[in-house]
Amino acid sequence: MANSPRLLIKNGTLVDGSGRDPLANTLIVVEGNRITHVGPADGSIRPETSDDTVIEADGRFILPGLIDAHCHISLHQGALLGVKYTSSAEFCTLWAAHVIGRVLRAGVTSIVVPGGKWFTDVTVREAVAGGLLEGPRMVVAGRALSNYGGIFDPDPYPAYEGTPNDAAGVLCNTRDEFIRETRKQCKRGVDLIKIADSTWGDVQTVADDEISAVVDEAHRHNVKVAIHSRGSTSTRAAASAGIDLIYHGDWATEADLDIIAKAGMPIAPVLTSPWIGVEHGAAGRGFADRVQDRLRAQLDHSFQMIRNARDRGIPILSGSDTGNASAFNHGRWHGKEAELFVKEVGMTPMEAIVANTSQNAWLMGLEGEVGIIAPGKLADIVVWDSDPLADITVLQRPSEISAIIKDGRIVDYEAGGFRQLGKEPPRARMFLPG
Ligand SMILES: [Zn+2]
Question: DSSP assignment, residue 422?
Fold first, then answer.
């Protein structure tokens, strides 16, 4: 009987995603879509044959594929030359199909999509799973559930006109409307319901019982619930309602964090998008100084909030908010959150890598299956040219990737001139602090 073909990754240094010390000169064997061996080559391994695909990783660093807990793919913003309606379902689908490969080729083999237009993201998730598109594994939400005064009821749109069907948010102004929209989105196949409170967190727009109603309804459908919550009271209300994940949480007090720690949900702070706003706002077009000052203050507060959360053992998930605005190019910023975790929050590079791999796997519903390199796990693996433990910014440079394996298959890395992508300057045109 013929041996099945294998993928062998030889002689690299393994950083396995669990937080364990790196292991030099490893051999990793992949058969089908699973990892079947990790360790030094020894006599128990069937010798290499011409049927095997071999990746020589001498001097390189082998990590699990990155997981981005906050990446939008259907929110095209701004005009595109020659396209009249960039918010149509048709265009959003084309846009998502256009950018999804860039995410994968940045070494990101899984993404959580907390909000999008129409049900585009559900369809793209299914197209990727069905092999129609090459992209990362996806867990997706639909339009964000928001009410008058919430982030998706933005000025200058007059609230009395409602939210148009092509908006990224859907207005829900009563408990019944929140339940109805949750039920509809569950039926259409979302993995996650996204509630959206106020833009900056200065007021709580979604009432406590509305959050609880969404959580009850979604959980009955085995769907998770996340909230855009920057404020103290909204964050506390979400934790008390048993929400699954808090995005941002900037103004959470120590008392709020005590409640979160007791309730047991993680926080995904999303530092990268305000950081881009602060660092690149002045050079960009459209960032008012007032907005920039506010983002800087919020960011400083967030750094301390995360330290306080870590002191209480609250898991911190890593997400970039890629795709929320044209400045947040797909493929460019997925590794930035790890750098900010290290330089601004005080995590070790290893802790930041764990946050971007095995820890984020929980939100994918694949805890212990992806984000970790060990026998029996799904084979999502990236081979980097340089050591991210020595320089965490390596994770922001797709040009330093020599191989990406997703679900046991080698990704065609050169497709679309991808090696050039890491060199693109940020293009700041529009900004939504979502
Ligand atoms: Zn977002």
Answer: G
| Backbone angles phi and psi of 144, in degrees to 5 | -75, 140
Amino acid at 386: S
Tell me, rounded to whole angstroms, the distance of Cα 315 from its chain centroid: 15
More confident call, 47 vs 162: 47
CA of 355 to the centre of ligand 1 (A): 18
Please tell me the distance between residue 128's alpha carbon and the centre of ligand 1 in angstroms.
21
User: In angstroms, rounded to a whole number, what is the distance separating the alpha carbons of residues 128 and 392?
Assistant: 29
Summarize the confidence of residues 6-14 as an average pLDDT: 96
Which of 49, 13, 109 minimizes the C-alpha distance to 370? 109
Question: How far does residue 225's CA lie from ligand 1's centre (Å)?
Answer: 14
Band of the pLDDT at 164, cuts 50, 70, 90? confident
For residue 245, the CA-to-ligand 1 centroid distance in Å is: 13
Tell me the pLDDT band of 43, cut-offs 50, 70 and 90: low
Contact present, 87 and 166 (Cβ < 8 Å): yes
Does the predicted TM-score (pTM) go above 0.85? yes
Q: Round to whole Å and give the CA distance between 391 and 332.
A: 17
**Token duo for residue 297:** 């203050």
Q: What is the pLDDT of residue 425?
A: 37
How far is the centre of ligand 1, averaged over its atoms, from the C-alpha of 266 (Å)? Answer: 17
Give the tokens for residue 262.
């007791």
Residue 427 has pLDDT above 50, yes or no: no
Q: 206 vs 22, 140, 201, CA distance in Å?
A: 45, 22, 11
- Cis, bond preceding 349 (omega within 30 deg of 0): no
| CA gap 271, 322 in Å, rounded | 11
Around ion ligand 1, which residues have CB less than 5 A away? Answer: 321, 324, 434
